[in-house]
Amino acid sequence: MGRKVCVVTGSSSGIGAATARLYAERGWNLVVNYSRESAPAEAVAAACRTFGAEVLVVQANVAEDADCRALAAAVEARWGRCDVLVNNAGTTKFVGLRNLDGLDAEDFQRIYAVNVVGAFQMARALEPLLKRNPPGAVVNMSSIAASTGLGSSLAYAASKGALNTMTMSLARALGPAIRVNAIAPGLVETPWLQNGMGAERYAASVQGYKARAALAEIIQPEDVARAAWYLGVDAVKTTGEVLAVDAGAKLMPM
Ligand SMILES: NC(=O)c1ccc[n+]([C@@H]2O[C@H](COP(=O)([O-])OP(=O)(O)OC[C@H]3O[C@@H](n4cnc5c(N)ncnc54)[C@H](OP(=O)(O)O)[C@@H]3O)[C@@H](O)[C@H]2O)c1
User: Fold this and answer.
1) pTM attached to this predicted model
2) Residues in contact with ligand 1 (CB, 6 Å cut-off)
3) pLDDT at residue number 244
4) Structural domains of the chain, ranges and CATH numbers in brackets
5) Are the CB atoms for 135 and 178 separated by under 8 Å?
6) Most Cβ neighbours (<10 Å): which of 45, 142, 233, 235?
């Protein structure tokens, strides 16, 4: 039997890149996906290849159904199988919670198009391949924002709440051949927050997070990647669940 195949959306950076590297290190072939910039995706692919993985680098905006279907067709043509889909691509707008005028309907639609509809479209496009060599698995990258209502914006938190609900619905819809779970990371050290917040606010957030998390730490992308391996591969009797990787932040008053 050939190597297993993992598709990680948004894997040119951060959590997605760490997840692609971990699956490659553990003997899988990979799709590394991005929507805008190819150079970082090529660098992640090169790192995966050092472990002997075959890697397809695919430009696809998960908000576009045609892109999702083209990605699935490329996987079918190359390997004829997909064992795990990690729906990691996400987007946001950084707007203070009290600033309701800072968000409009278009912001909601743009954020939902990637964070919710994109995950749905990818699962739908890959369903036949995920069912081909059961058990297949889908891992959705949610956020602690879904259960706290905090995070980069109200629209972002709501989109991750919707993703958690969709995780349950997809687990019902795609079982028994495919398990569907989600990860809810806390503050992860990636370019996402550093770019979105600016250096000063980011440093203050990190200090604040460490002060209230039970484990007094922020999260590394590799910590989340291990959870994506657990839910994608090891958690064979778990479906419809959301696993927090938050260093215990939600145990404390926010
Ligand atoms: N960092 C945190 O603290 C944190 C906490 C909780 C949850 N999360 C979630 O974790 C996921 C990854 O975040 P990260 O921190 O690793 O971010 P990141 O370092 O900014 O990486 C985001 C990745 O997604 C890709 N991407 C963005 N929009 C896309 C689209 N429409 N289609 C395909 N790819 C797209 C980006 O590539 P291009 O720019 O080339 O498209 C990049 O590869 C997101 O879903 C985020 O909500 C992050």
Assistant:
1) 0.98
2) 9-16, 33-37, 61-63, 88-91, 114, 141, 143, 185, 187-188, 190-193
3) 98
4) 5-251 (3.40.50.720)
5) yes
6) 142
